[in-house]
């Protein structure tokens, strides 16, 4: 590594065979003295403000990308394709921009232009039309319980109780789900009983004798609810005859209940009916009623007795035939005394939403195009900005972590503001408005573009041969090992970062607790950034990387056994080590291994390896592992990978880096003598 210990500038030959200028100054300040020294550097004040603006822009928009794609109707498969192309751009862009910056030397204008174009490209997303729109059906669905001739449903000849959907949004039954011995237990709420009048003759059954109940229907007030092909008229009568079967006998009793009183019940549906799947009418074998809040497993409603056709006084099976005439056609309406029940749609129906398709291909390709343009400018500006910050910090002997701390403060402040504005602008969950996030991003990056022009970035001369210098750097085994570590760390971040909140949702963590976990992570990261220089000096860069791998092991293995939702705050606080400290270490360590003429190229290599290859591959591998083995098992597999990588890098540090550095020191001492 290149260390600055002489007292005047000189040209030296580094371990890569490259001539580099070493700025010789006094011994670098430590601890609080370093922070005070950094804060007094007027040249770094614009850097701190820019860090606040740039990272705030990341925080207001990037977390909402996946949700925005979903709101546009982009499918999961299409989202994967978009992320795949984005991964390639994240690899190529840092390399190209880094070499361009090193070739230009002073890349202030290029950085400002990148910020400005990123600001404009973000607004392009607002032009993308919705390709598919999911309209959620009501949480509860309406069904009727009534009698029908059994010959239409089963091989029996007597009438039985039937269960049929009358919701405006027809139910696609989950026939196989929860099926045991060709029956399924369905929990329902019995609302009220009355006359269900159908608007077609498909429900008409000649088996029943026609009873003139037109006067009864007309005497009822306004109907309470309109159903698919039917209208419901409530009546004063209720289902008050219970025929119960016990282990020893069978009998009937009467219960007096007030009109409008809801009653919880469990229906045992017969899935073995030959025509059930086609007609969506399911025979009811038994009904378990909940009486006074208590349910007896030995008390069942015998549905055959309820539908006894010989009892003309039993209103549950009465059928009305009403005929209306007009000049052109005849229309028939059949009214039957039936009861309405309410059931959770997700329990019985597979279709919980209706998808309206407009032009999904146009939406997909427009989003792909605009995302590629956006990624080029955002990733390119990030690479240039990191290189500029590192160069300016080293020039004044400041603290790199102190500049990053202001970025975390920006994320902590503006991310909640962006989320609150989105909620305020959105009508509901199905009509979300993400315009505030894009406008905030455009405004923050626009200000950053203008602010960049006020910074003096004349910190190095242009490189004469960037490609040659980078090739020479890659011959350094220490830098090659660092790039491998960046790949593994990026893979671990990609596997966990995109899926950890889905896991937390599964174990019952609400959105407020998720937001609190992000805040805890940022708060924990601030002292690590403040004292990062001290940490690097005390432990050394390789040992800090080993600590980061240890943090991954604890976090991943801990998540695989977590059961209490509140424990996520503990494990998410470790993300400050596995994420913020790890990335800071990679950037500073990589800059130390490079030269002043290739600082931006080094940052480009590390960014491409970490964010492009590592995180990109990790996102795909993580999804595959979770689908194949579950999230808990995936976390354990990743924990083992973190242990192996950390262990081998520890051995590499002990048996190679330390010995090589010791030999360099010994050779330097011998040459001095």
TrEMBL record:
Quote the subcellular location field of this record.
Membrane
Instruction: Please report a single Pfam family linked to this protein.
Output: MFS_1_like
Which keywords fit this entry according to its UniProt record? Membrane, Transmembrane, Transmembrane helix
* Domain of life of the source: Eukaryota
Does the record carry Oxidoreductase as a key word?
no
What membrane topology does the annotation report for this chain? Multi-pass membrane protein
Indicate the transmembrane segments per the record. Answer: 49-68, 80-97, 109-128, 364-393, 405-425, 437-459, 479-501, 513-531, 543-562, 574-593, 605-629, 635-657
Q: Which residues form a coiled coil?
A: none
The protein's matches in InterPro entries, at most eight in alphabetical order, are given as:
MFS_assoc_dom, MFS_MFSD6, MFS_trans_sf
Main subcellular location: membrane
Domain Major facilitator superfamily associated: start-end pairs: 47-636
A Gene Ontology term for the protein's cellular component = membrane
**Family under the similarity heading:** Belongs to the major facilitator superfamily. MFSD6 family.
| PANTHER family per record | MAJOR FACILITATOR SUPERFAMILY (MFS) PROFILE DOMAIN-CONTAINING PROTEIN, MAJOR FACILITATOR SUPERFAMILY DOMAIN-CONTAINING PROTEIN 6-LIKE
Q: What is this protein called?
A: Major facilitator superfamily associated domain-containing protein
């Amino acid at each position: 590594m290149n260390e600055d210990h002489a007292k005047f500038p000189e040209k030296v030959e580094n371990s890569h065979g490259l001539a580099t200028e070493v700025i010789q100054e006094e011994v670098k300040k430590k601890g609080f003295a370093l922070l005070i020294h950094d804060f007094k550097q007027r040249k770094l004040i614009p850097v701190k403000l820019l860090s606040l603006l740039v990272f705030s822009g990341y925080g207001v928009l990037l977390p909402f990308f996946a949700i925005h794609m979903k709101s546009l109707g982009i499918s999961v498969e299409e989202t994967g394709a978009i992320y795949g192309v984005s991964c390639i751009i994240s690899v190529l862009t840092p390399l190209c921009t880094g070499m361009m910056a090193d070739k230009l030397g002073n890349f202030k204008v290029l950085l400002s232009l990148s910020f400005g174009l990123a600001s404009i490209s973000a607004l392009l997303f607002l032009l993308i039309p919705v390709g598919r729109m999911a309209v959620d059906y009501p949480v509860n669905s309406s069904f009727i319980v009534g009698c029908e001739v059994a010959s239409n449903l089963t091989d029996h000849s007597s009438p039985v109780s039937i269960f049929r959907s009358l919701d405006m949004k027809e139910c696609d039954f989950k026939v196989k789900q929860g099926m045991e011995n060709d029956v399924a237990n369905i929990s329902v709420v019995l609302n009220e009983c009355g006359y269900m009048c159908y608007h077609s003759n498909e429900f008409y059954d000649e088996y029943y004798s026609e009873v003139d109940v037109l006067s009864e229907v007309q005497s009822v007030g306004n109907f309470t609810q309109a159903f698919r092909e039917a209208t419901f008229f409530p009546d004063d009568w209720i289902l008050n005859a219970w025929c119960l079967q016990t282990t020893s006998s069978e009998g009937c009793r009467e219960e007096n209940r007030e009109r409008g009183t809801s009653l919880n019940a469990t229906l045992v549906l017969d899935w073995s009916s030959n025509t059930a799947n086609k007609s969506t009418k399911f025979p009811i074998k038994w009904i378990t009623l909940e009486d006074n809040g208590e349910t007896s497993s030995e008390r069942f409603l015998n549905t055959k007795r309820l539908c006894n056709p010989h009892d003309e006084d039993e209103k549950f099976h009465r059928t009305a035939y009403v005929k209306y005439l007009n000049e052109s056609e005849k229309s028939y309406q059949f009214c039957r005394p039936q009861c309405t029940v309410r059931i959770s749609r997700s329990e019985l129906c597979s279709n919980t939403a209706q998808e309206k398709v407009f032009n999904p291909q146009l939406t997909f390709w427009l989003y792909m195009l605009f995302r590629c343009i956006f990624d080029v400018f955002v990733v390119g500006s990030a690479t240039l900005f990191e290189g500029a910050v590192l160069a300016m910090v080293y020039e004044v002997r400041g603290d790199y972590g102190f500049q990053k701390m202001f970025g975390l403060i920006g994320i902590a402040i503006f991310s909640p503001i962006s989320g609150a504005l989105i909620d305020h602008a959105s009508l509901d969950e199905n009509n979300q408005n993400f315009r505030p996030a894009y406008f905030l991003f455009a405004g923050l990056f626009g200000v950053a573009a203008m602010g960049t022009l006020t910074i003096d970035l004349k910190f190095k001369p242009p490189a004469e041969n960037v490609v040659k210098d980078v090739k020479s750097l890659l011959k350094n085994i220490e830098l090659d090992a660092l790039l491998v570590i960046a790949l593994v760390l990026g893979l671990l971040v990609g596997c966990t970062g995109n899926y950890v909140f889905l896991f937390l949702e599964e174990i019952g963590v609400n959105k407020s607790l998720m937001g609190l976990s992000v805040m805890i992570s940022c708060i924990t990261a601030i002292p690590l950034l403040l004292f990062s220089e001290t940490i690097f000096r005390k432990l050394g860069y390789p040992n800090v990387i080993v600590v980061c791998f240890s943090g991954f092991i604890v976090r991943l293995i801990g998540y695989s056994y977590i059961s209490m939702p509140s424990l996520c705050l503990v494990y998410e606080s470790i993300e400050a080590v596995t994420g913020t400290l790890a990335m800071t270490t990679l950037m500073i360590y990589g800059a130390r291994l490079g030269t002043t003429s290739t600082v931006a190229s080094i940052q480009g290599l590390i960014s491409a390896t970490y964010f492009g290859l590592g995180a990109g591959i990790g996102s795909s591998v993580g999804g595959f592992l979770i689908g194949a083995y579950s999230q808990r098992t995936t976390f354990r597999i990743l924990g083992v990978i973190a242990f192996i990588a950390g262990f081998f890098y520890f051995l590499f540090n002990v048996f190679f880096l330390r010995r090589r550095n010791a030999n360099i020191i010994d050779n330097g001492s011998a040459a001095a003598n």
